[in-house]
Write a structure and sequence with these properties.
alpha+beta
């Protein structure tokens, strides 16, 4: 396992924000410092709170699932009556060696979730559509420039899929976080289905940014330099489970999720292994004067192939998709499906860099991305995850 420079990845992300939009302030190195104390405990919104299964095999049996048959391919049964849906039903047993390099390369973007959500109902509070910002390739090696960023892999009825995600700090386990922030639609199908399966996170995927040809017959360490981390518990918003749809739907403003992960082959915490994690700011939803937000991810729908990390930085504006739902952040960006779930970062008033949103929806033709405002509901889900599962 290669050595890393923990501070550098945070500062290079911050530098990209500062260079692209000079409204951002200094002090980016603080982002790698000790996380502040988290908020007080409270139950997550939408019924997302659930107990971590003490015995996964028993949990599966409660739903008529045999652990042996599951690992031998039983997970491929997507019959609606057998598709676990409710917040407390999440199960994700490790299938060692499932996510091999070729299987990762073949995984597709959940393209339907990148279609434009209906916007007619809330045009009164939507800002004009931003100009497209051409996505820029991140410098390599990724562990030096965007260490907290990686890819999420999961299986759905449509096949193996990919999203993007970010390692985030755990206030109750400083320096030893196993928490990853992504989209709700990268873990749960919303109103039409249930929890996806075989959900795993790979930090610094394809660390050297090699082409598809160069990755033919790639070794596991080239694709997943820090290993594969399985999501043993996940929480998303009740609003996403209830209202989320193939194009985002009314659940789009609540399209976020937090995963607790563990290494497939054992070892140290995710944050210790990767060397970095970003704090989350739940105050950005109240700040309309943010000079720049940067989105990082692995776009996989054409013209991209999902192998290369990209980034976009732009001044955020507002998008309203329907009356009665919160407005979303929107930036110009040409990234496509596969970048979903990727973190949006901004320099805070105190000079620290933090995750403030995640890529949720965008038009089929690309040009812009929108992400949820992380409000009190998101904070409650995160707090519960940290308190109940963070030290597991």
């Amino acid at each position: 396992m290669r050595s890393i420079r923990p501070l550098l990845a945070a500062t290079t992300i911050a530098a990209a924000l500062a260079l692209t939009a000079t409204a951002c302030g200094p002090g980016e190195e603080e982002a790698a410092g000790k996380a502040a104390d988290g908020p007080s405990a409270s139950a997550p919104a939408g019924g997302a709170e659930a107990a971590l299964p003490a015995d996964l095999a028993d949990k599966l049996k409660e739903h008529g699932v045999d652990i042996g048959k599951w690992k031998d391919g039983g997970w491929k049964n997507w019959d609606r009556k057998d598709w676990l849906r409710e917040a407390e039903d999440y199960v994700n047993p490790v299938i060692e060696g499932l996510w091999k390099p070729e299987r990762m390369k073949a995984a597709k973007a959940p393209a339907k979730t990148m279609a434009t959500a209906g916007t007619s109902g809330g045009q009164g509070v939507s800002d004009p559509e931003p100009r497209p910002v051409e996505a820029e390739r991140e410098k390599t090696p990724y562990h030096d420039h965007a260490a907290p960023v990686g890819k999420v892999f999961f299986d759905s009825p449509e096949g193996s899929m990919v999203c993007s995600a970010t390692v985030v700090k755990d206030p109750r386990n400083p320096g030893k976080s196993n928490l990853v922030w992504t989209d709700g639609h990268c873990v749960h199908a919303g109103q039409a289905g249930g929890w996806y399966r075989n959900i795993a996170f790979v930090p610094a995927y394809n660390d050297l940014g090699k082409s598809a040809a160069a990755l033919d017959n790639a070794q596991q360490r080239e694709i997943s330099p820090y290993g594969v981390y399985w999501a043993d518990w996940v929480s998303t918003s009740g609003e996403w489970i209830r209202d989320g749809g193939p194009t985002g739907g009314a659940g789009a403003p609540y399209d976020y999720a937090i995963m607790h992960v563990k290494p497939e082959n054992g070892g140290k915490s995710l944050e210790e292994t990767v060397g970095n994690a970003l704090p989350i700011s739940f105050d950005a939803s109240e700040n309309e004067n943010i000079g720049a937000m940067g989105a990082w991810g692995y776009p996989a729908a054409p013209p991209y192939n999902g192998l290369i990390m990209h980034k976009c930085v732009d001044r955020p504006t507002r998008l309203s998709i329907s009356p009665g739902t919160p407005t979303m952040h929107r930036i110009g960006c040409t990234m496509t499906g596969g970048s979903s779930g990727g973190g949006w970062f901004a320099t805070q008033p105190d000079g620290k860099l933090a995750l403030v949103s995640n890529t949720s929806i965008g038009p089929v033709t690309s040009g812009w991305l929108a992400g949820p405002r992380l409000d009190q509901g998101a904070q409650q889900i995160f707090t519960t995850m940290s308190e109940k599962y963070g030290s597991k």
